[in-house]
Amino acid sequence: MGTKTPSEPKPRKLSPTRKPDDMSVEQWQIALRRQFGQEQDFQLENVGSHPVFSESTVTNPQTRRSYRVAIRGEGLGLNYCSCPDFAVNTLGTCKHIEFALARLRGGKRNRALLHAGFTPPFSEVYLRYGAQRRVVFSAGSDAPPALTMA
Prior knowledge:
There is one protein chain. This protein is of the alpha+beta class. The chain has a domain at 25-118. It contains five helices and six strands, in the order αββββαααββα. The strands form two sheets. It has a four-stranded antiparallel sheet, with helices on one face. It has a two-stranded antiparallel ribbon with strand order 5-6. A hairpin with a 5-residue loop joins strand 5 (124-128) and strand 6. The longest helix has 15 residues, at 25-39.
């Protein structure tokens, strides 16, 4: 008789109108966007050159609205979406980002790439989104050593 591996517990279904007592409002809103993004039948088109850390277009086939999503990592505030919710919610995520991340995690290779993280050869300055927006400098792998010294 073989041993059975416990499967991952299924995430609970959250109500969009009633915050669970064990979550902060911020945690609840982030979880709702994750839940909603994972339930959608959006279309994802990678318009960049990297299979994961790239720019994509996320389209809702029902409304035909499309938004530009830039994936830089798995953490909150690392990614960008051009949708109105992302512009104002101060959570650092939205349903379009969560849809893209869920889709990217679906493949073993992409999941490994996401987990490993990515440093592009070029340096960039971008906004990190969240409760407070911050300007971030990220030195690329080809950056001169003087730029990487803090």
